[in-house]
Amino acid sequence: MNEPFVTAAGESAPSPPQWKPLGRIDRRVVGVLVEKAKTTPDQYPMTMNGLINGCNQKSNRDPQMQLEESDIDDSLDRLKGAGAVIEVQGSGRVAKFRHLLYEWLGVNKVELAVMTELLLRGAQTEGELRGRAARMEPIADLNALREILQSLRAKRLVIDLTPPGRGQIISHNLYEPEELQRLKERLASGGYETASAPVPTAQPSREPPRGSPHAAPSSTPVTTPGKAIGELQSLRAELAEMRRDLEALTETVRRQEREISDLRTSVGG
Length: 269
Description:
Elements: H1 24-39, H2 48-56, H3 69-82, E1 85-89, E2 95-99, H4 101-105, H5 109-121, E3 124-125, H6 126-133, H7 142-154, E4 158-160, E5 169-172, H8 177-188, H9 225-268
Antiparallel strand pairs: 1-2, 3-5, 4-5
Helix pairs in contact: 1-3, 1-5, 5-6, 6-9
């Protein structure tokens, strides 16, 4: 079960959310904690080694990172100080770590799945986000996602980076102010990249000059760069969803291979 963690029975009503902006490493660490709690609960709470592997893994991450134990240790100290993470005692006295993001953000299970994908991969289109978050919690379609996003907007946890419509780009609102400003500037200049691929800049017009025999009438509809980018992003979203399905299938095959290997070892013993 992925229910919110409760520290004691008979607690009073939950206190208001305590979230605040987080740095890139802190977002990665807490995002990994939530992801593993939902997708591999048998490995949760997480050890330091588990966090290192989860933060540096190649799939479901953007940007790629290569964090050391000291980086994650410092991040855990910051997150514990902010009330987003706690340390618990594991078996064999190995320290393990648990997130408190249900209370810290003030969200439900599906909202947290959406926030986690944004923390792990940054800004995305709606299509990309629905497919990726659905690996943690069911999201039937884009309309269901949009209802979730409306709730998260009301809580000031997500922001729209481009206008509503096909290919709209959204992200979480946990950026530090300077980072958010740089992100917006890159987007305005056409140099921003979503989690799957770069957004192309508009190409110079190749239309013949006005008055030319080959010139199109002024009333002829023209596809704007923004619309073209939106359609391209939608195609990329579909491709990203196919990649997600392939990753999930690969992981299932690997798990089954491990189970077969364990069974053979048990029978052989």
